[in-house]
């Protein structure tokens, strides 16, 4: 992880973090390199694949950002959009038995995954509390997610139960952990990568630690699994959805969407709505449909 041994003058790499104008790039040979960017590439973000070049003075610069699969953008406190993470393959949506699961929030994260064209993995933490706190409705909600093709994993950030299996689902992918406060994201991250402090300590030498709340760090784990993590990524929830985007975020709705009588059907009150029909026919879960209606009302 040292850049002194670097002999190449140009190459391709991946941004593993950024601090203000400075970016840390992991090169193909796994060494890391501090880079700046041309002004017009200023939106380079953690997770981006980039071409870099070293000039005569020894400093390196990013010359090209490769086309992204997707990106997560948030507004800065000045109201400007800022990309905080790029090229995310899997959203690990963490809930726990205490604080209790909020299925409407899980739906919202799933919508984000569908919009990003990323996989969604539902993780329920604190297995030790299931017996005391899990309700029949909770188990039903989990069954419904599995029924429409989402994987559900039960883990313990405390004992480490299920963590190996979680790690397996991450392999070959760039993953992010999401979930509300107290569900155990830090505990899970620590279980997955007990050595992560080392990486953090390395990059913090560039100063400007206050940026760590918005910038993400990319951690490479065994089996080519990557975890992209930061408080700003963890509490990301998609907003500014319209009714069409919302409906498209419920994947079990998709086969029916073109069969409604009205092309701009909101699947709420309209006659001859194929979604409402599918709910009646028990093809679509009434619970998910009700949460869709609640979300629609809150747009
Ligand atoms: N009983 C139980 N408690 C757990 C488990 N995993 C984590 N906790 C506890 O849950 C609390 C919250 O865990 P954190 O890892 O800080 O949760 P977080 O999601 O990172 O929270 P924020 O940083 O607020 O977003 C802590 O007191 C943990 O010790 C578990 O498997 N079982
Ligand atoms: Zn409809």
UniProtKB/TrEMBL annotation:
<feature type="binding site">
    <location>
        <begin position="125"/>
        <end position="128"/>
    </location>
    <ligand>
        <name>GTP</name>
    </ligand>
</feature>
<keyword id="KW-0378">Hydrolase</keyword>
<keyword id="KW-0342">GTP-binding</keyword>
<feature type="binding site">
    <location>
        <begin position="179"/>
        <end position="187"/>
    </location>
    <ligand>
        <name>GTP</name>
    </ligand>
</feature>
<dbReference type="GO" id="GO:0046872">
    <property type="term" value="F:metal ion binding"/>
</dbReference>
<dbReference type="InterPro" id="IPR004881">
    <property type="entry name" value="Ribosome_biogen_GTPase_RsgA"/>
</dbReference>
<feature type="binding site">
    <location>
        <position position="273"/>
    </location>
    <ligand>
        <name>Zn(2+)</name>
    </ligand>
</feature>
<keyword id="KW-0690">Ribosome biogenesis</keyword>
<comment type="similarity">
    <text>Belongs to the TRAFAC class YlqF/YawG GTPase family. RsgA subfamily.</text>
</comment>
<dbReference type="GO" id="GO:0042274">
    <property type="term" value="P:ribosomal small subunit biogenesis"/>
</dbReference>
<keyword id="KW-0479">Metal-binding</keyword>
<protein>
    <recommendedName>
        <fullName>Small ribosomal subunit biogenesis GTPase RsgA</fullName>
        <ecNumber>3.6.1.-</ecNumber>
    </recommendedName>
</protein>
<keyword id="KW-0694">RNA-binding</keyword>
<feature type="domain" description="EngC GTPase">
    <location>
        <begin position="86"/>
        <end position="234"/>
    </location>
</feature>
<feature type="domain" description="CP-type G">
    <location>
        <begin position="69"/>
        <end position="236"/>
    </location>
</feature>
<dbReference type="GO" id="GO:0005737">
    <property type="term" value="C:cytoplasm"/>
</dbReference>
<comment type="function">
    <text>One of several proteins that assist in the late maturation steps of the functional core of the 30S ribosomal subunit. Helps release RbfA from mature subunits. May play a role in the assembly of ribosomal proteins into the subunit. Circularly permuted GTPase that catalyzes slow GTP hydrolysis, GTPase activity is stimulated by the 30S ribosomal subunit.</text>
</comment>
<feature type="binding site">
    <location>
        <position position="265"/>
    </location>
    <ligand>
        <name>Zn(2+)</name>
    </ligand>
</feature>
<keyword id="KW-0963">Cytoplasm</keyword>
<keyword id="KW-0547">Nucleotide-binding</keyword>
<dbReference type="GO" id="GO:0019843">
    <property type="term" value="F:rRNA binding"/>
</dbReference>
<dbReference type="Pfam" id="PF03193">
    <property type="entry name" value="RsgA_GTPase"/>
</dbReference>
<dbReference type="InterPro" id="IPR027417">
    <property type="entry name" value="P-loop_NTPase"/>
</dbReference>
<dbReference type="InterPro" id="IPR030378">
    <property type="entry name" value="G_CP_dom"/>
</dbReference>
<dbReference type="InterPro" id="IPR010914">
    <property type="entry name" value="RsgA_GTPase_dom"/>
</dbReference>
<feature type="binding site">
    <location>
        <position position="267"/>
    </location>
    <ligand>
        <name>Zn(2+)</name>
    </ligand>
</feature>
<comment type="subunit">
    <text>Monomer. Associates with 30S ribosomal subunit, binds 16S rRNA.</text>
</comment>
<keyword id="KW-0862">Zinc</keyword>
<keyword id="KW-0699">rRNA-binding</keyword>
<feature type="binding site">
    <location>
        <position position="260"/>
    </location>
    <ligand>
        <name>Zn(2+)</name>
    </ligand>
</feature>
<dbReference type="GO" id="GO:0005525">
    <property type="term" value="F:GTP binding"/>
</dbReference>
<dbReference type="GO" id="GO:0003924">
    <property type="term" value="F:GTPase activity"/>
</dbReference>
<dbReference type="InterPro" id="IPR012340">
    <property type="entry name" value="NA-bd_OB-fold"/>
</dbReference>
């Amino acid at each position: 992880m040292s850049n002194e041994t670097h002999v190449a003058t140009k190459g391709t790499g991946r941004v593993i973090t950024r601090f203000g104008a400075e970016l840390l790039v992991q090169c193909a040979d796994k060494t890391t390199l501090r880079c700046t960017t041309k002004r017009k590439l200023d939106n380079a973000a953690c997770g981006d694949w980039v071409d870099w070049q070293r000039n005569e003075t020894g400093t390196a610069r990013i010359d090209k950002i490769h086309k992204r699969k997707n990106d997560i953008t948030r507004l800065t406190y000045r109201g400007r959009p800022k990309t905080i993470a790029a090229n995310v393959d899997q959203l690990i949506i963490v809930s726990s038995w205490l604080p209790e699961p909020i299925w409407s929030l899980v739906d919202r994260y799933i919508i984000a995954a569908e919009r990003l064209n990323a996989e969604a993995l539902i993780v329920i933490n604190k297995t030790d509390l299931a017996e005391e706190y899990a309700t029949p409705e909770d188990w039903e909600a989990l069954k419904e997610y599995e029924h429409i093709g989402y994987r559900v994993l039960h883990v313990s950030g405390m004992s480490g139960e299920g963590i190996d299996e979680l790690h397996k689902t991450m392999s070959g992918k760039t993953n992010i952990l999401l979930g509300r406060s107290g569900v155990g994201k830090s505990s899970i991250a620590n279980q997955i990568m007990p050595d992560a402090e080392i990486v953090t300590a390395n990059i913090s030498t560039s100063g400007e630690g206050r940026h760590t709340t918005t910038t993400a760090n990319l951690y490479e784990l065994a089996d080519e699994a990557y975890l992209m993590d930061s408080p700003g990524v963890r509490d990301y929830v998609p907003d500014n959805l319209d009714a069409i985007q919302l409906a498209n975020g419920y994947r079990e709705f998709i086969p029916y969407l073109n069969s409604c009588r009205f092309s701009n059907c909101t699947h709420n009150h309209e006659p001859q709505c194929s979604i409402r029909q599918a709910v009646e026919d028990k093809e679509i879960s009434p619970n998910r449909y009700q949460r869709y209606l609640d979300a629609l009302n809150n747009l």
